[in-house]
C-alpha cells in the first residue's frame, strides 16, 4: 500500500485478537497499521492470525521498536491521539489525509509521556460512565470510519448490488 489514506498506530498493544481484528479493518479500508513499542504477544500468535483471518495479505503492517522511533521515521506527519481522558470529541478532529491515529494499550491507554505533551491533539469517544472503556479494536473502527467519512471514503470501493439480472 503505497499511499494509505490514514495510519493507525497501536502503542504497546497487549491483546492479539484486537490487533488481528484491526488488521481486518485495515484490509477493508486501505489504512496502514503501525505497532510501536513492546508487544504483549508474538507476531506469530495463533489468536492474532485467527482474528485477522485471511486478510493479512491485503494489509500493511509495520512494527517499530518504539513510538519515538516511529515519529523519527515520519518527519512532518500529523499525529492525533485517542484517550478516554481527552476533552475533545473524536468527531471534531478535522481529519486530514495521511493522519496517524494513535491508540494506547488495552489496559493502560496512552502513557502520560505521550499523551500529556500532545493534549491539544487528543480526542475521546463519548461513552456512559458505567463502562471503563471501549474495546481497542472497536474504538479504532469508530475513529477510522469517522476519519474516512470526513475524507470522502478514499480508497474504498463500494459494491453496488442490483436487483436486475
Fold blueprint:
Blueprint: E1 7-11, H1 16-29, E2 32-36, H2 46-52, E3 61-64, H3 67-73, E4 79-82, E5 88-89, E6 100-103, H4 112-115, E7 122-124, H5 136-150
Parallel strand pairs: 1-2, 1-6, 2-3, 4-6, 4-7, 5-7
Overview of the structural elements:
The protein is α/β, with parallel strands linked by helices and 165 residues long. It is built from 5 helices and 7 strands; from the N terminus they run βαβαβαβββαβα. Helix 1 runs parallel beside helix 2 (46-52) and helix 1 (16-29) packs parallel to helix 5 (136-150).
List keywords for this structure.
alpha/beta; 5 helices; 16% strand; Alpha/beta knot; 165 residues; 7 strands; seven-stranded parallel beta sheet
CATH superfamily: SPOUT methyltransferase, trefoil knot domain
**What is the H/E order?**
EHEHEHEEEHEH
Total domain modules = 1
Q: Give the strand order of the largest sheet, numbering strands 1, 2, ... along the chain.
A: 3-2-1-6-4-7-5
What is the multimeric organization of the chains shown? single chain
Tell me the overall shape: globular
Largest sheet: 7 strands, parallel
**Derived structural class:** alpha/beta
Assign a percent range to the helix content: 25-40%
At the first level of CATH, what is the class?
Alpha Beta
Amino acid at each position: 500500500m503505497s499511499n494509505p489514506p490514514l495510519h493507525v498506530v497501536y502503542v504497546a498493544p497487549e491483546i492479539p485478537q484486537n490487533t488481528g481484528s484491526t488488521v481486518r479493518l485495515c484490509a477493508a479500508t486501505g489504512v496502514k497499521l503501525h505497532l510501536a513499542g513492546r508487544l504483549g504477544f508474538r507476531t506469530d500468535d495463533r489468536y492474532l492470525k485467527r482474528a485477522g483471518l485471511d486478510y493479512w495479505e491485503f494489509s500493511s503492517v509495520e512494527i517499530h521498536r518504539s513510538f519515538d522511533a516511529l515519529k523519527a521515521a515520519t518527519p512532518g506527519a500529523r499525529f492525533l491521539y485517542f484517550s478516554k481522558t481527552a476533552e475533545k470529541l473524536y468527531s471534531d478532529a478535522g481529519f486530514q489525509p495521511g493522519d496517524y491515529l494513535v491508540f494506547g494499550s488495552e489496559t493502560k491507554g496512552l502513557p502520560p509521556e505521550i499523551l500529556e505533551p500532545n493534549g491539544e491533539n487528543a480526542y475521546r469517544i463519548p461513552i456512559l460512565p458505567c463502562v471503563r472503556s471501549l474495546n481497542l479494536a472497536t474504538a479504532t473502527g469508530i475513529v477510522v470510519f469517522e476519519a474516512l467519512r470526513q475524507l470522502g471514503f478514499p480508497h474504498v470501493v463500494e459494491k453496488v448490488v442490483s436487483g436486475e439480472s
